[in-house]
Design brief:
This protein is α/β, with parallel strands linked by helices. It is built from 15 helices and 18 strands. The termini are far apart.
Length: 521
């Protein structure tokens, strides 16, 4: 394999964490010149799903909120270990220092009827426990495209364990059993802490300000080219092969074709969970963007069966759609009420789920400020609903049809804050976001639906991001995207460096014993 990379050029399609991490590893480990790397991004901003924007005047917006964990996020920690942050620290050092000071230990993981309930007892029946451990012992190929509800009995889905687990990670009963198995194995060390979330690690600010912005700054300092508001429309391969010869893109109405040499590399982020996102306001609900997503992946998937099947992940919007919302408050009342109820400061409670919510509504109050430019007089929190097609308990609307005002009223109802609703509404901006493919990674799939990071026979082309296949690892995480970047870069460049290993706690007798013991609660 070619190992002299002085003339190698790298083209990265997509401006999310997978591409940014790939560029970083190309520079650090592949010794590729920064000015030989180009990142194409369709939107005006970088970061993909790790975006965060807004102001105290218009309201802040985050489409998602992510929690980290020390053993699972080994690739992510590796990336953060060489990207400079603030005060002469790396991003990893910042993260560890912050979490040493601000520790999550929830006493309010579940709330029902406005009252905190004891989330310690997981409520599993013996049959449920046996099914969990049986699932982990099965092989993934044997599961095929089975759904979670095909394997477990109805009692499993009413247990507090399922409510806590599903809302922490975003699972519904009709999602992939194979993905649930992977999650059980990867998080086998977490059951003792599932009700307190004490294994959770948080970034100092939102993930854009804490990870994306400093990473982009580092890449720009290395000379990396960023082409934003730019759409790559075509990837041309040599006939009957997987070698890229040309890229065609448009920017500002102008069409450009790039010749890709055999020693150049093309890394493609296929698909995005935030594609076709739409936003609402305090007075309007977000509207569904019904345009066909991922046209580039769809076009190349027709060329070769090794390029995956994107329609598997886009054909069931009624199951993959997700509603999240961000609340910006100019009055500390809401935060103070929640802190009084939970007896925990913001940043220490972790995710709060309303067990009796028809939407299975959850909210998290991170430590403030959560945005780098956020005034001290402003607070920001985030939430989401796992079943947005259902009507609310207090607002008789489907979550899909709710305005920001509706969402705030529903949330306050679950918290028992009805008397404070007028004051909270006057001082808050709640912005809902509809993501039609928010949990599409979890839809049932078969072997071949996700392409390999480097398809068999590929010479200069790789898939990265959430919709490629990485054995044993878990989608819906920053870790999956960063791991795909490591695999793609090390493989295509023929580097002797090994990909950061996956932690496999299921081989540790003590971990297994502790997990089983926790299941007895």
């Amino acid at each position: 394999m070619h190992t002299d990379h002085k003339k190698t050029r790298v083209y990265l399609i997509g401006g999310g964490i997978a591409s940014l991490a790939s560029a970083a590893y190309c520079i650090k480990d592949g010794h590729i010149r920064g000015d030989h790397i180009t990142i194409f991004e369709e939107s005006p901003t970088l970061g993909g799903a790790l975006d965060a924007q807004g102001s105290p005047t218009t309201g802040y917006v985050m489409r998602g909120y992510r929690m980290l964990e020390d053993k699972i996020y080994s690739c992510t920690y590796d990336l953060l270990s060489f990207i400079p942050g603030r005060n002469h620290k790396t991003l990893k050092q910042e993260l560890l220092a912050f979490n040493k000071k601000t520790k999550t230990h929830s006493t309010s993981r579940l709330i029902a009827n406005g009252t905190i309930i004891d989330a310690g007892p997981l409520g599993l029946h013996w049959k449920d426990r046996s099914h969990i451990f049986e699932l982990m012992a099965l092989s993934e190929p044997s599961l095929k495209a089975s759904r979670i509800q095909d394997f477990f009995t109805p009692s499993f889905f009413t247990s507090d364990f399922w409510i806590e687990f599903s809302t922490t990670f975003g699972f519904r009963s009709e999602y992939s059993l194979a993905e649930l198995r992977r999650y059980f194995l990867r998080f086998i060390q977490e059951p003792p802490e599932i009700s307190t979330l004490s294994g959770v690690r948080s970034t100092v600010y939102n993930q854009y300000d804490s990870i994306i912005a400093p990473l982009v700054a580092w890449l720009k300092g290395k000379g990396v080219h960023f082409e934003t508001s730019c759409t790559v429309q075509k990837i041309t391969f040599t006939k009957n092969s997987k070698t890229v010869t040309r890229l065609t893109y448009t920017k500002g109405g102008e069409r450009t074709t790039i010749t890709v040499n055999p020693t150049d590399q093309v890394l493609f982020t296929a698909g995005s969970m935030v594609s076709n996102s739409s936003f609402g306001s305090m007075t309007s609900s977000p509207k569904l963007d019904s345009r066909t997503p991922w046209p580039l992946w769809n076009s190349i998937a027709k060329l070769n069966r090794d390029f995956g099947k994107p329609t598997v992940f886009t054909a069931h919007v009624n199951k993959s759609r997700l509603i999240s919302f961000t609340i910006t408050s100019k009055n500390p009342l809401f935060f103070k009420l929640v802190e009084t109820l939970t007896k925990r400061k913001a940043g220490e409670q972790g995710l709060i789920t309303f067990k009796d919510s028809h939407w299975l509504l959850s909210v998290v109050l991170p430590q403030q400020p959560h945005f780098a430019n956020q005034p001290t007089s402003v607070t920001v929190c985030w939430g989401y609903g796992l079943y947005p097609e259902k009507k609310g308990n207090f607002v008789q609307k489907k979550m899909l049809d709710c305005t920001g005002t509706d969402l705030l009223m529903e949330l306050c109802g679950h918290l028992g804050f009805e008397q404070y609703i007028p004051k909270i509404l006057r001082s808050s901006i709640c912005i809902p976001c509809l993501m039609p493919y928010g949990t599409s990674q979890f839809l049932p799939r078969r072997k071949g639906d996700r392409p390999a990071v480097v398809p068999p026979g590929s010479t200069n082309f790789a898939f990265i991001g959430q919709y490629c296949e990485i054995p044993d690892d878990i989608v819906f995480t920053i870790e999956y995207s960063v791991r795909s970047a490591q695999i793609a870069v090390y493989s295509l460049l023929g580097l002797p460096k090994k990909v950061t290993p996956i932690y496999k706690g299921q081989h540790n007798i003590k971990i297994l014993y502790d997990a089983f013991k926790a299941s007895l609660r």
